[in-house]
Amino acid sequence: MQLFAFGLNHTTAPVEIREQVNFTPARLRHALHDLIERDLAQEVVIISTCNRSELYCGLGCDTRPAIINWLSHYHNVPSQSLQAHLYTYQQTEAVRHLLRVACGLNSMILGEPQILGQIKSAYNTACEEGTTDRLLNKLFQHSFSVAKQVRTDTAIGSSPVSVAFAAVRLAQQIFGDLSGNTALLIGAGETIELAARHLHESRLKRMIVANRTIERARQLAKEFSGYAITLEEIPVHLAEADVVISSTASPLPILTQAEVKQAIKLRKHRPMFMVDIAVPRDIDPTVGKLEDVYLYSVDDLNEVIQENLRSREQAALKAEEIINTQVTHFMGWWNSLDVVGTICLMRDQAQEARHKLASKAKRMIDNEKSPYDAIDYLAHTLTNTLMHEPCVQLRQASYDGREELVIAARQLFKLPDDN
Fold first, then answer.
1. What is the CATH number of the domain that holds 254?
2. Does 100 score more than 70 pLDDT?
3. What is the domain range of residue 102?
């Protein structure tokens, strides 16, 4: 069987193309079956996210052109337009590509961990639909193991490289476990939504979302079991917040020094961590001069992010070394499958000889022959039986000048040199 990976991602295709080739959850299951039923693949897993759509296929024969044509028709994208953005990997390079994707080395944000969960979900869907078998089962399980090893043995995921992630990680450094803390998120855009997700994953106790439009605040708050308020209500709730993250389009500061000072007083000087991601700033810069307030601007976070990116790039080099080794291990397993049939035939042949001669040795004992004579007969005859054909073939190989077969026999049986 041959392994192929087909796909496009954020580095090869603009969002307009990626949108067209995206597989929704409902269409994903249909697509898996369609590929199998059309005999285009014997096994298939489809990974589809906002940044990539990839097909991993086990093929009995080379159906690459047909699969590309299927992909074009399935999404109603002109073939020429699709192929301009499509990449194809075969065998070893397909294995390497999946391992790099699983480890976050092929992501828009180097080392991001979300892709591994998305791959696991895609694989589970394919398993549920019965479109995987020995090859892809082994490959994807191997990719999960390698991703875990890379996370354990390198610092690829330990340093935050997004503004939202960096803000949450800094909050964790100040408060430690966030399960007893409350966060106030000001705004409801993409960055705040991402921060809310990271806080939720960190098991934050309580979340308050403030936004100019209360409907949008409620929508975001509901997703994370939070509480929605308007911007005008912030002073009433500010003292409740251990963590404040703000990102709005307001031309003027939303939080003044006086408001934060009053909140700190009500908190009895328990520390407050504040991140102002907005440009222009949402939080009066003089707030940073207050005791018990840790105020970070977007520039502060960018310095952290750039340093962490350099750290991840160093970790990525070590990750690539791990992947190279693991690609070799997987290909070794795969290549070994070619000899399984031969090994089975050899064992069957040996077992047949053993059974035949063991039966004869038992009859010798039944006929009152010495057990020692029976054992000697069995050992001698079985050895000659097993070695006869290999010796005949080796003599013929030597006669024919096929020295490579003689060398292979020495390696196979671990024979010492003539010397």
1. 3.40.50.720
2. yes
3. 2-153
Q: How far apart are CA 295 and CA 286, in angstroms?
A: 9
Same domain, 22 and 140: yes
Q: Which residue has the higher pLDDT, 413 or 319?
A: 319
Q: What predicted TM-score, i.e. pTM, was given to this entire model? A: 0.64
Classify residue 162 by its DSSP letter: S
**CB neighbour burial string for 368-404, b if at least 16 within 10 angstroms, e if fewer:** eeeeeebeeebeeebeebeeeeeeeebeebeeeeeee
When pLDDT is averaged across residues 34-62 and rounded to a whole number, the result is 93
Q: What is the DSSP letter of 52?
A: E
Quote the DSSP letter at residue 418: -
Q: Do residue 16 and residue 119 come from a single domain?
A: yes
Q: CA 86, CA 13: separation in Å to the nearest integer?
A: 8
- Is residue 243's pLDDT more than 70? yes
Same domain, 176 and 149: no
Phi, psi of 113 (to 5 degrees): -90, -15
Same domain, 137 and 13: yes
The percentage of residues in the chain with a pLDDT greater than 70, rounded to a whole number, is 99
* Beta strands at 243-246 and 272-276: parallel, antiparallel or unpaired: parallel
Residue 98: is its pLDDT beyond 60? Answer: yes
Residue 418 confidence class, pLDDT cut points 50, 70, 90? low
pLDDT over threshold 80, residue 419? no
For the annotated catalytic residues, the residue numbers are 50
The tally of domains found in the chain comes to 3
Compute and round to an integer the Cα radius of gyration of the chain.
Answer: 32
* Whole-number Å distance between alpha carbons of 88 and 68: 10
196-225 in b/e form (b: 16+ CB < 10 A) is bbbbbebebeebbbbbbebeebbebbeebe
| 95 and 39 co-located in one domain | yes
Q: Quote the CA–CA distance of 419 and 416 in Å, as a whole number.
A: 8
Q: Cα(303)–Cα(306) distance, rounded to whole angstroms?
A: 5
